[in-house]
Write a structure and sequence with these properties.
This protein has 308 residues and is α/β, with parallel strands linked by helices. It has 11 helices and 16 strands. A 7-stranded antiparallel sheet has the order 5-4-3-2-8-7-6. Strands 12-11-13-14-10-15-16 form a 7-stranded mixed sheet, sandwiched between helices. Helix 8 runs parallel beside helix 9. The longest helix has 12 residues.
């Protein structure tokens, strides 16, 4: 398995003071997150464990940590928003902004509510830079177990946050995109990290990317205009998305998707997921582990019925 991390692409978004100790970290490809919290030391997450960043490297505990000021968080936030916060309001309302390389920056602060809905966020108190990585070959074993999804049916990848769902989806797109027509529905820009029309990650010779489309619309358009054999998307679950996926099933297109869940039992308790599994959109579900088991399958479930 070869690994290519977006760690270096993430660094320019930080202030010089925060960049400096990170530039010399060993094993940068293993860093999953950089966490900035106002008034506390900067942290780097590896293997699901938070380490304090010091001038000498990483350590457990706060002693010697690089402090994060409110001014630093404001500067990083403006860098993430390309100094045009207004242009990113839709993304901010969702809680994150996707940056170059496909990394996602989570935003924590004080909510501004208008008409009983979240309008924006002010007084940013924390940022979580979740670093995208391309791990070619990480899904080979899973793809071998799945087989040909056109024959075995739709696949659902479940897992807690930071369990590797997006990374696995990306490698599955690469694997299947060499064998069949694939459409990646990349609403958040994380799977493909498209820049100027070009995916920044390898997704397979026959893969087309719908970048930034609302998922329900992307499903309908992809099926109508690109004649895919396989759709790949992340984080499904709304009623509108479920309706679109149910319609796509009747066109003969197979789906591989991800969803947040700590267990397969919890996954099936979500009404929209249950609708999709009961209707036969998904025939298999895999649960990914966290921490040292990040990206590894821990549980498998097969749903009944014949593939349509």
């Amino acid at each position: 398995m070869s690994i290519r991390s977006s760690f270096q692409q993430m660094l320019p978004y930080l202030t010089p003071e925060l960049q400096a100790p990170l530039r010399h970290l060993p094993e940068q490809d293993s860093v999953q997150e950089i966490r900035l919290r106002c008034g506390r030391p900067m942290q780097a997450v590896r293997g699901g464990i938070g380490f304090t960043v010091t001038a000498q490297g990483l350590c457990i505990g706060a002693s010697g940590g690089i402090p994060v000021t409110g001014q630093a968080i404001e500067a990083v936030f403006r860098n993430v928003c390309a100094h045009s916060v207004h242009s990113f309001q839709d993304a901010i309302r969702q809680g994150f902004v996707t940056i170059a390389g496909g990394s996602r920056v989570g935003i924590c602060g004080t909510a501004v509510i208008k008409s009983n809905q979240l309008d924006t966020v002010r007084s940013i108190s924390g940022l979580n830079l979740r670093i995208a990585s391309e791990r070619r070959g990480c899904a080979e074993a899973l793809a071998e177990r799945i087989g040909d999804p056109r024959q075995t049916g739709g696949v659902l990848l479940a897992g807690a946050p930071a369990s590797g769902k997006t990374t696995i989806l990306r490698d599955l797109a690469r694997i299947y995109g060499e064998r069949m027509r694939v459409c990646v529905l990349d609403e958040r820009g994380e799977i493909a990290a498209v820049r100027n029309g070009m995916p920044q990650f390898a997704l397979g010779m026959q893969t087309d990317v719908f970048d930034g489309y609302p998922k329900a619309e992307a499903i309908a358009i992809a099926v109508r205009v690109m004649s895919p054999e396989l759709l790949i998307c992340d984080e499904i679950g709304t009623e509108e998305e479920a309706d679109a996926l149910l319609r796509s099933m009747h066109t003969g297109v197979t789906l591989i998707a991800s969803a947040h869940a700590g267990s397969l039992q919890a996954l099936r308790m979500r009404p929209q997921i249950r609708r999709l599994t009961d209707a036969g959109v998904f025939r298999q579900a895999y649960l990914l582990g966290t921490g040292k088991n990040c990206g590894n399958m821990t549980t498998f479930q097969k749903f009944g019925g014949d593939h349509p």
